[in-house]
Amino acid sequence: MIAVAISFLTDLGANHFFVVLFLYTGLLLFQRAVLANTIYNKPHVKFSKTYISLQLATTFVAGMTSILLAAKPTLVLYITTACLFLIETYFLLYYTKNCQKAGIKAWYWF
User: Fold this and answer.
1) Using one digit for the tens of pLDDT, what is the confidence trace for 59-70?
2) By the 8 A CB rule, do 79 and 69 touch?
3) pTM for the complete prediction?
4) What is the residue-wise DSSP string for 1-70?
5) Which of 1-10, 52-61, 63-72 is predicted with the least confidence, judged by mean pLDDT?
């Protein structure tokens, strides 16, 4: 879904509002699958409700901003890239903080 939506963003004949909704629907479905499987994570990296809320709020704000700017595909890609970068940064901070709390050394993270 995500790859198809990104390819349609530059298509002049496509409805950009629909394409942006399609893009963020794909991103939210992917996030839902990842976040729903937190029960299978190791105990020190199970996602907290705060982490999940922060991740979904970031996606929601980026999605609303992208919908408002749907006519400008370049801005939509910039916003989506920034959103995914923030989500990855949240994850790295969350993961390293919880590994340190659990007393796991850096070379045992992976």
Assistant:
1) 999 999 999 999
2) yes
3) 0.85
4) -HHHHHHHHT-TTS-HHHHHHHHHHHHHHHHHHHHHGGGGS-GGGPPPHHHHHHHHHHHHHHHHHHHHTT
5) 1-10
